[in-house]
Amino acid sequence: MKTWKLAAAAVTAAALVSAGFAMTKGHVKSVQAAAGAAEEEASQEEAPSQELPSIDTRIRVRPGSRIAVVSKQTKGDFWVQIREGMENAVKDVNTAYGFSGDDKVTMTFEGPKDERDIETQINTLDAVIAENPDVLCLCAGDMDSCLAQLEAAEENGIPVVVFDSTVAEDDLISAYRGTDNLGMGRIAAEKISESVGDQGKILVFSATEKSATVRSRVAGFLEELSMHPGLTLIDVIYQDQVEDFETAMQEALQTNPDTAAVYCTNGDTTDLFLQTDIAKELQETLIVVGTDGTKQQIKAIEDGRILGCVSQKAWQIGYDTILAAAQLSTTVNLTRVERDVYLEPMWIDADNAGLPETQSYIYD
């Protein structure tokens, strides 16, 4: 048997537990309930030790398989890493199975530049499914809007591997590869609590509420925050619910000058906030926790402008997604491919940003 090394760390995540606590904005209360349908985790307490699995060539891969990837966004450090991981996986699969010429597994990668452009993603999905690929890989910008397309994929016998951000109807997909997003939110709340001494007001600046990853991160954050009664949530401000996100951030902090900490739920949101005038004005007093190890955030950590960020292995998500897709290219493998794999997030701060084990979580 030939095997090829594959860097991955799969964790089993804990089942979503909704937790309520006093909030100053009523609409935030719905976040936790919505997240229950977005993503489900298995218990982290039973998570296996991290190992390096192999490409097992006893699992059949159809020669000449065409894998179509439709991402919710293509621009940004995180998405560049995702794509690089996917491209590396295609090369490794072809090498491991000895595919050449027309037998090579191929991949296309498409999607909007901005995750809020749901219409472009839906149109891209329609076009991709019409081409009848062997496997579809999807990162959903809106967990509800692409269900008709997934039903069409099912009717045409196209397996679907969802990566990073899942969909509302779990039975329409064959596999999921991504991060424990609830865990990411919990870690962010834990770090803020430790930093402010369990006392203070908190603002959350978030990417689009339509994304399952965002809903899960916010839900995890709220769940952990509810364990610290001295912390008060002021509001969760979503990018897709305001006209100008940067202005909304600044106005929220001007209206609440006693805000102790800010949590940003993804890389683009964190990078945008760090560029605002008010973030620069308050950098000596405001605790900021970001998401994803973007270049700008790592520099801000090194400069002492933010406490740290909760990051994920973007390259690994991409790699694992394509490996699962290749293995699902033939229906005999439907029960042999692991259904859901959650990678473990990592907290990055000034103490560990330069360590070797942290580098796979930084998007250089």
Concise overview:
This protein has 364 residues and is an alpha/beta fold. Helix content is 35%, strand content 17%.
How would you describe this structure in keywords?
7-stranded mixed β-sheet; 13 strands; 6-stranded mixed β-sheet; Rossmann fold; 364 residues; 35% helix; 2 domains
Q: Tell me the Rg in angstroms.
A: 20 Å
Give the C-level CATH assignment of the largest domain. Alpha Beta
Q: How much strand content do the residues show?
A: 15-25%
Please name the CATH architecture of the largest domain. 3-Layer(aba) Sandwich
- Ends distance: 35 Å
What would the average pLDDT be, to the nearest integer? 86
* Structural classification: alpha/beta
CATH fold description of the largest domain: Rossmann fold
H/E element sequence: EHEHEHEHEEHEHEHEHHEHEHEE
> What's the helical proportion of residues?
25-40%
What strand order characterises the main sheet?
Answer: 1-12-6-5-4-2-3
What's the domain count?
2
Task: Tell me how many strands there are.
Answer: 13
Could you explain how this protein is built, in words?
The chain is elongated. It is built from eleven helices and 13 strands. It has a seven-stranded mixed β-sheet, sandwiched between helices. Strands 8-7-9-10-11-13 form a six-stranded mixed β-sheet, sandwiched between helices. Residues 1-53 have low confidence and may be disordered. α1 packs across α6 (212-225), α2 (77-97) runs parallel beside α11 (314-327) and α5 (181-196) packs parallel to α6. The protein folds into two domains: 17-41 and 181-311, 3-Layer(aba) Sandwich (Rossmann fold); 45-180 and 313-345, Rossmann fold (3-Layer(aba) Sandwich). The chain is an alpha/beta fold. The longest helix is centred in the N-terminal third of the chain and has 21 residues, at 77-97. It has helices at residues 30-38, 77-97, 118-130, 147-155, 181-196, 212-225, 245-255, 267-275, 277-281, 295-302, 314-327, and strands at 10-11, 66-70, 106-110, 135-138, 160-163, 175-179, 200-206, 231-238, 259-264, 287-291, 308-311, 340-343, 346-348.
